[in-house]
Design goal:
With 328 residues, the chain is α/β, with parallel strands linked by helices. Helix content is 33%, strand content 27%. The longest helix is centred in the middle third of the chain and has 16 residues, at 186-201.
Length: 328
């Protein structure tokens, strides 16, 4: 389990920093083995900073509090724990965390097998054990066919997979992924999603940050929205989306020329609230008042207008992202 307790970060001297100077303002989070946690936030929200703290690339910050007596007291930084053991430095990390960066770093003049052997050296494995381990890693990310090719000649997608393999050399308990599917085509994203799912099946803790929110919906079991330095919304995907669902029907007409007729028909219902026609004319959103769902449906059916589909509007991760960042 990954446990994050009261993690704060400022790039100023903590004793002199004011609350608004903190990028992270007290992050508390627990992620269980087998979970895939999606960390969502705007650029600059602190997602990469949090991952850097977990992986000991940078350190958390303490902060000053004012006691009821008016005294200024400096509190120590928060803690990171993996399976109950506090991670204080690189020595205590001991390969427990695998970190896949947005743009994976590697010695591009090496082949995949050479690079993985180089990363495996501190493990003290025999040559045969190293070869066996690294062939399995390349197989898990679909790069066996390119094992003897220099990384310099890899495509962006292949380098992304190579970065995942490199991060798994120590068989870490916690896997951090910063934009794992950025700049990949749909096929590449699909392949990376399957790799992530397999890591969770192996019982690893997976935390990923991405702006491809459709991928979050496909792969994550739980999400957290990082807004203003705090995780303000968190929970299982289904629960979070349901909490943002609006009372509305999404209606697609056989012919978009009938969109206005749908609006006029809906306006006759007692439960009507408002209607919006999408700019490209692809669908109509009809919002209803509390208890007005059936009235709206009856009015649309009675109109006799041919429709392709009618469904209750479901909030997507993108909808929630836009709403929360406006609110935040």
């Amino acid at each position: 389990m990954l446990k994050i307790t009261n993690i704060r970060k400022t790039y100023m001297t903590p004793q002199l920093a004011s609350p608004q100077d903190y990028v992270l303002k007290g992050i508390n989070l627990e992620i269980l083995p087998g979970e895939i946690f999606g960390l969502i936030g705007a650029n600059g929200a602190g997602k990469t900073t949090l991952m850097n703290i977990i992986s000991q690339i940078t350190c958390a910050s303490g902060h000053t509090v004012i006691t009821p007596e008016g005294l200024r007291v400096f509190e120590k930084p928060g803690t990171i724990e993996i399976d109950g053991e506090e991670i204080k430095d690189l020595n205590s990390l001991k390969g427990k965390v695998g970190y896949m960066l947005d743009i994976p770093a590697s010695h591009e003049f090496m082949t995949a097998m050479e690079y993985l052997a180089y990363l495996s050296a501190p493990q003290g494995l025999s040559k045969e054990e190293t070869t066996e381990q690294n062939l399995k890693l390349l197989e898990s990310v679909g790069l066996t066919y390119a094992k003897d090719r220099r990384i310099k000649g890899y495509s962006r997608g292949m380098k992304q997979k190579m970065g995942i393999a490199a991060g798994l050399v120590t068989n870490p308990k916690v896997v951090l992924m910063d934009e794992p599917s950025s700049a990949l085509d749909p096929q590449g994203r699909h392949e990376v999603i399957e790799i992530i799912k397999n890591l969770a099946k192996e019982g690893k803790v997976v935390m990923l940050s991405t702006h491809v929110l459709s991928d979050v919906e496909k792969v994550c079991t739980r999400v957290g929205f990082l807004i203003g330095g705090e995780i303000k919304i968190t929970g299982p995907i289904k629960e979070v989306t349901q909490s943002f669902n609006e009372d509305a029907y999404r209606i697609v007409c056989k012919d978009s020329i009938h969109n206005m007729k749908i609006v006029e028909a809906a306006k006759k219902a007692k439960g009507f609230k408002e209607a919006k026609i999408k700019k490209d004319g692809s669908d109509v959103l009809v919002f209803f008042k509390e208890g007005g769902r059936v009235d709206i449906l009856k009015a649309i059916v009675a109109s006799g207008i041919e429709i392709d589909s009618i469904s209750l509007k479901q909030a997507s991760m993108e909808d929630i992202f836009l709403q929360t960042n406006v609110r935040g």
